């Protein structure tokens, strides 16, 4: 059985054992309907399969009436015709196959005790159906197959749909997203600011989107080649930050990596990431091709099963992440960060990591507090956790939400 099949089997087991718990906790969660963007075809904005793009919108109230939180949905990428054709007729490539109703939890929750700083804002989840972090602009057509790589146009179509609904009069705004959606916040942060009133307070938050240009355990630049093929296939290059692509004009596709694009982003930014991000661990540091004999198999499922050499390798990855953030950490006056040491991926959308009695903490701060303190300027918010295994607040067992997110990539 390969790793994917095993993960799938394991996730089924977890789903079965946790079913009663899930039904119970959904009672108090917010369900929000899908809105299709009817005007999208007028600017050629389509999902991979040609369906209409969509978002879910929960209107703000009270003191939050004029504040807006936009959250990019995540879900990996497709970087060649084969993988994009496979993706097109699924919920990752078409709104026809997506859930019509989404649960809004964590940073999207409308409950003040679960989401104290953003619960009464206008909250929008942007559905992901282009496969290139909302940044491509191309079409593949050869007579039998047709694929739309229109992420950048989807981004524009959704923004233009929301502007007359109140986004155009926003007082405060936060652009966020997780995983491939976290990457999208790096790519679109300054563009978001340009649509909003000049006196609005606009900031951006990336959750699990700081994908590193790192080598894998076979010394291969797996992720670099992956992004290069993605940028080429989907026509992303012209939508990358032009100051960045000009600065590294020999390898403009490198500006897909947040570590190179970050210095050119002008809007205040918060970087939330685990130093042992499970997606990066499994796909950048130890991709299946780099571990043909499965020496990392048990370590990937549970960090307590890693041997000392593997732990040292993981510490090296953490070190590289902190090094890549050093200049931001030292020099950014308006930026914030929270780099914890939990084996996880995406921590703002799930209630148990965002804010709960036993949610992860760094120097006693929950993630929601750190983000809120930074957004509202209540205190400096640059947290770096001590290395694994020091943090006892982590839930390092492969959890339900984590398995679900990884399976969805
Ligand atoms: C969501 O959609 C369902 C089915 O179309 C409808 O019955 C319900 O009233 C909608 N809810 C809201 C809040 O619009
Ligand atoms: C908000 O969440 C708290 C804690 O889970 C819960 O006790 C309360 O009932 C929720 N309020 C609403 C309006 O759902
Ligand atoms: C179009 O591309 C698909 C996927 O690569 C391929 O299966 C199909 O044969 C191609 N059709 C033509 C007419 O070349
Ligand atoms: C923002 O992006 C849109 C395309 O999505 C583009 O038309 C517009 O010019 C961009 N705005 C700025 C200020 O770059
Ligand atoms: C590039 O940098 C110049 C000078 O700082 C700035 O005026 C311009 O807006 C920047 N362009 C982008 C796309 O950020
Ligand atoms: C290293 O990358 C090359 C090019 O992508 C690939 O052909 C090769 O199989 C990779 N080797 C390993 C051990 O992953
Ligand atoms: C911080 O900024 C200063 C001035 O631009 C620069 O000289 C210094 O190298 C930067 N520090 C780091 C760690 O990047």
TrEMBL record:
Keywords: Cell wall, Cell wall biogenesis/degradation, Hydrolase, Secreted, Signal. GO terms for molecular function: hydrolase activity. It holds the Pfam family PAE. Its EC number is 3.1.1.-. GO terms for biological process: cell wall organization. It is found in: Secreted, Cell wall. Residues 1-25 form the signal peptide. The keyword Hydrolase applies. It comes from the Eukaryota. The keyword ATP-binding does not apply. Hydrolyzes acetyl esters in homogalacturonan regions of pectin. In type I primary cell wall, galacturonic acid residues of pectin can be acetylated at the O-2 and O-3 positions. Decreasing the degree of acetylation of pectin gels in vitro alters their physical properties. Belongs to the pectinacetylesterase family. This is Pectin acetylesterase. It comes from Buddleja alternifolia.
